[in-house]
Known about the structure:
This protein is an all-alpha fold. The protein has one domain. It has 6 helices and 2 strands. It has a two-stranded parallel ribbon with strand order 1-2.
Amino acid sequence: MTMTLPTAAALIALHDHLLADPAWPGAEPPADDDLWRWVQTNHRCNCQLWAEEDLARRTTVAAAEIAANKRAIDGHNQARNDATERTDELLLVRLGLVDPASAATDAPLSTAPPGARLNSETAGSIIDRLSILALKVHAMRQQSQRADADTQHRATSTAKLTRLAQQRADLGSCLDALLGDAQTGRAYFKVYRQFKMYNDPRFNPALVAEQQARLAAVEFTDGAANRPPASASGQPAGRKP
């Protein structure tokens, strides 16, 4: 397995190649190694999120369909964040900047050299942003080529496409610089757990309240079932008034 670091050019090429594949994101091609597999997984989650976000904006369908889109968005977003964190773990292990045994825990142990600059944004997060920019570039290119749109729409889309391409190139340069500095001990980043509370029934206050209400209802039902039947006088059977 190769231990080389990904470059922005290679990531951009992969993102664009996958978006051009008619089978994507339904079918995921084999990856070179675990790191690239998680990069692909992150990109697939972003593609699925993009599609669900479009569907969630519909105005002529039943509310239940929009609710289903929103629930799907939650699931894809959680999976996207998980893939970003896994990408960071593997990059840091490859760079020798984290204790491998702790990399997948909630508190990874950094092994960055003294004096190295801590970068607030992780490499995995930048890769995630590059994936989203690939989707924007892909969609804006389609808009710039729409035969059913007027000339002004295509011209506006073309101008936006140029700006998006510049944003992606700039972000790619930032990733290359971060990984280059990390490789030489001048910079490092950490795995930051997102701890998405809204998806966890233990932490989401609304879901906690629902669970408590369900338990209370069960206790009430069980209590009612265990009470002795009432007599005609309204007192429990066998009890003197």
